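I hope you will forgive my troubling you with a question about protein structure. I set the record out below, with my sincere thanks for your time.
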Amino acid sequence: MDSLRTRFAMATAGRPLPLILAAAAAAVVLLVAVVLAAGQASGSEAEAPAVRVVPTAAAPTPALVHVSGAVRHPGLVALPAGSRIIDAITAAGGPTGAADQSGVNLAARVADGQQVVVPKRGAPSAAASGSTAGTGGPATVSLGSATAAQLETLPRIGPALAARIIAYRDAHGGFSSVDQLSEVGGIGPKTLAGLRDLVVP
């Protein structure tokens, strides 16, 4: 026992006890600071939100439609893709008090470059189809808004063929050109040639 006391006394000889305790406390504080800094760094990495890039689709090209007849503001209107004739009439200020919308297929989709004519009450049936009269020539029927009865006024067009034209119009969002009639079953080159000057898209 005396030997151990002697060794301890020799090891601590010349070293003040407060200095030894201060060094030990500084070491503990430094260790705690290192541990806390490491925990904060790992927490920041875990909380960093993931960034996901979502591709944006190109905006569809609007359809330019000519609305005329018994509407408040006739002229050209630009409509989003997939719009219907009722949207074109609304964009033109809506129908006037004299408009006869029963002769227009309001649910038909419009096509770019199409003309929509809203007839007045008492107008001839050809005009009621959403048609426009050429200078010095016969009235033309609008394929985009004509009813079955109005299509049947055309040469070589009966009830069955009129129904096919309307079914094609509804399935394809209207007609963008008269030549599309050749895609309707039962309309051949001869029939198309006879209709070319009598109809508009």
Notes: The chain is about 40% helix and 10% strand. The first helix runs from residue 2 to 11.
